[in-house]
Write a structure and sequence with these properties.
By secondary structure, this protein is mainly beta. It has a single domain, classed as Rieske Iron-sulfur Protein, CATH 2.102.10.10. The chain is built from 1 helix and 10 strands, in the order ββββββββββα. The protein has a 4-stranded antiparallel β-sheet, with no helix packed on it. Strands 1-10-9 form a 3-stranded antiparallel β-sheet. The protein is globular and about 40 Å long. The structure holds FE2/S2 (inorganic) cluster. The site of FE2/S2 (inorganic) cluster (FES) has 8 residues, from loops.
């Protein structure tokens, strides 16, 4: 049902292999990633290490490398890869007819009390 999803705009606002942040009112800053294969992922924009801005990292495959200390974070699970440990929340999203949607309940659930 469309009502369960929050429309965050057209897919072409994100270039393949990059990310951008979204001003979602009342929620934590969310980074939406578009891979070189045109897959889309949304994560809270805080590295699980020291909260680096993942949206400014390098996207390769389904992984983003944090710009601060080069941890590799899975875009699918939000987990740190390799020897590093930590996890950042992933926001379920979908693409439909050229527009991106975030699962509304996931966004609302992250609002500060
Ligand atoms: S803050 Fe991301 S690797 Fe340190």
């Amino acid at each position: 049902m469309i009502g369960d999803w929050l429309d965050i705009g057209p897919v072409d606002q994100i270039t393949s292999g990059t990310a951008r942040t979204l001003p979602v009112v009342g929620a934590e800053e969310i980074a939406v990633f578009r891979t070189q294969k045109n897959e889309f992922y949304a994560l809270v924009n805080k590295c699980p290490h020291k909260q680096g801005p993942l949206s400014q990292g390098i996207v390769h495959g389904n992984v983003v490398t944090c710009p601060l200390h080069n941890w590799n974070i899975s875009l699918k699970t939000g987990e740190a890869l390799g020897d590093d440990e930590g996890c950042v929340p992933v926001i379920p999203m979908k693409v439909d007819a050229g527009r991106m949607y975030l699962l509304r309940s996931a966004v609302v659930g992250k609002q500060a009390a």
